[in-house]
Amino acid sequence: PEVEGAADLDYFRAESRWTANALQAMFDEVDTRLGDFIDELKVSNNASSALKKYNETAEAVKDSPCVTTSEEFRTAQDTIESVIATCVDAVPQEDKNKFRSLINESINKTREIDNSFRQNSIVCTSLRLPPPSSCKATEKKLLADIDEIMSCSEVDTFNYHIAVTTENAKDSINACVENGTKDLIIKLETALKSLESCQSRS
Asked: Could you tell me the superkingdom of the organism this chain comes from (predicted)?
């Protein structure tokens, strides 16, 4: 999702457009990291691990009388992914909204500075040449102001919010998935023990 004003194409200066795009990219980083985490979670959660163990054991004894419910867990992975999707939707949005406000504030500053660039250009190019020295001084100050928006300390602040937002979302999803799949894990572990017990008697 775009933060307000980030994709406007009417920026007067390239520096302003670059800054707005960089701010949007910082905000998008949260979704990128969470997307990677969710893709990984679909195959690396406890329920999927239990399902994999069960399937491997069931496959190893598939021709024996031990396997009587081969279809029982056929849709288990779909169930797991459905739980994950529900948990993702349930993530509290306070951290992300706080970060969005911070980015919006910086984008608004960028637009204000860009408007000042535009006004300075209008004033300075409408006067007789050469332009007064104040024009260059104003431009220099505005360039410093736009640089400050993505200064090291500001970027550090953004990175902190990215980390906090991402980690809190991960913790929320992990706890929710663990709770949402615990019954399935118990069923899988029970079925696995039953298979192993049958296999040892065969």
From this structure: Eukaryota
What's the predicted TM-score (pTM) here?
0.82
Place of tokens 């500053």: 109
- What amino acid occupies position 76? A
- The total of other beta-carbon atoms located within 10 Å of residue 7's CB is 11
- pLDDT, one tens digit per residue, over 73-118 is 888 999 999 999 999 999 999 999 999 999 999 999 999 999 999 9
Given CA atoms 76, 80, 82, 83 in this order, what sign does their dihedral have? positive
SS3 per residue for the chain: CCCCCCCCCCCCCHHHHHHHHHHHHHHHHHHHHHHHHHHHHHHHCHHHHHHHHHHHHHHHCCCCCCCCCCCCCCCHHHHHHHHHHHHHHCCCCHHHHHHHHHHHHHHHHHHHHHHHHHHHHHHHHHCCCCCCHHHHHHHHHHHHHHHHHCCHHHHHHHHHHHHHHHHHHHHHHHHHHHHHHHHHHHHHHHHHHHHHHHHHHC
CA 34 to chain centre: 4
Q: Which domains does the chain have, with CATH numbers?
A: 14-201 (1.20.120)
Q: What is the model's pLDDT at position 41? A: 96
Examine the pLDDT at 167 and tell me if it is beyond 90.
yes
Give the model confidence (pLDDT) of 142-158 as tens digits.
Answer: 999 999 999 999 999 99
